[in-house]
Amino acid sequence: MDAIAVSGVSRWFGDVMALDDVTVGFAMGRITGLLGRNGAGKSTLIDLMSGRAPTVRGTVRVLGSQPYEQRSVRRLVCAVSEAQPYPPAFRVDTVLTAARRFYPNWDDAVADDLVDAFTLRRRQKVGKLSRGQRSAVGVVIGIASRAPVTIFDEPYVGLDAVARDLFYERLVSDVCVHPRAVVMSSHLIDEVADLFDDVVVIDRGRIVLEGSAEGMRGAFAEIVGPTVSAMAFVDGLEVLRRRDLGGVSRITVRGADPSAARAQGLTARPLSLQEAVIAMASTTGGSQTRHDLPSVGVTS
């Protein structure tokens, strides 16, 4: 059973549809990347999964129960966002104490280690922290909570490269020892790609790609060559994007065999996760096709 199960969820803000019939699951013991461009619907979906907002159409179940206004469920869900609303007059140690009292699996040793690693000053007021320091406080809470469901919504804003690397390393290490369902939204896709066991891509409020990160590798490729030859090669394959210049075409395609393309004198290379997400989000028209990639090492 998925730790988070979303079924047929739609959400509007006025006449704007933020989520359109979303059905997706997030597995226990996996780190899932929730990816998409700004305004795609990531934060809206996270608000519903974390119990911050009610579900109007469809259902959201976290550990088998709906999370909205259910304190017993929300204590098992730690959601850390880019703009976490900490009271500015609170000191860092006050915020951490409140988190320790709220999350039943809280680990003081982990929190202490991370506070030292991020060089946070416990008696400093939150309102005086830099943006990066505020993000570090959120990272400490997210990891030390050891909540069965942990959600990070762009948690690294303001953190430098060294601090981000520290966050990634400590998160993976802790999840390996204490498995949980982790969902992470991110714009730094290539930087975090190796963290993910699974990926979910959302665009215009719809899930357009879902599956294992391993299944993503080699699933999408760019074919480059003379337009006539390139178009003949991709005939029958799913073309996501095509760019032509001076009789040469660059075609982003799903399901191509790069070795077969090279045998025909074409250039072929697999796409990175970030390139694949961009290609999916660049697909024109309002009727995106959902792509389900193979699940590797996952049982339901």
From TrEMBL:
Superkingdom field: Bacteria
SMART domains referenced in this protein's UniProt entry, alphabetically: AAA
Pfam families with a match to the protein in the record: ABC_tran
SUPFAM superfamilies for the chain: P-loop containing nucleoside triphosphate hydrolases
Alphabetized UniProt keyword annotations: ATP-binding, Nucleotide-binding
Gene Ontology MF term list: ATP binding; ATP hydrolysis activity
Domain named ABC transporter: residues: 4-229
Name of the molecule in the record: ABC-type multidrug transport system, ATPase component
Organism: Nostocoides australiense Ben110
